[in-house]
Write a structure and sequence with these properties.
Largest sheet: 2 strands, antiparallel
Number of strands: 4
CATH class: Alpha Beta
Structural class: alpha+beta
CATH architecture: 2-Layer Sandwich
Bound molecules: iron/sulfur cluster
Distance between the termini: 4 Å
Strand content: 15-25%
């Protein structure tokens, strides 16, 4: 699984709270810090997708 954050991000920090192993705050918006999301963080990454208020997180299988 790969994940990325689009420019719809409003930097609320929710994804980072949910899964700091995958998300971090960049200059203006959140970013994904791993190339491939490890198996053990995929559930939390999906939770971040579901919780993101602006649907800014996109995942690809
Ligand atoms: S939850 Fe969504 S809007 Fe909030 S920081 Fe993460 S990507 Fe950005």
């Amino acid at each position: 699984m790969k994940a990325r954050v689009t420019e719809d991000c409003i930097a609320c920090g929710r994804c980072i709270e949910i899964c700091p192993d995958v998300f971090e705050m960049g200059e203006d918006i959140a970013q994904v810090k791993v190339d491939e999301v490890p198996e053990e963080f995929q559930e939390a990454t999906q939770e971040a997708v579901d919780e993101c208020p602006t649907s800014a997180i996109v995942v690809e299988k």
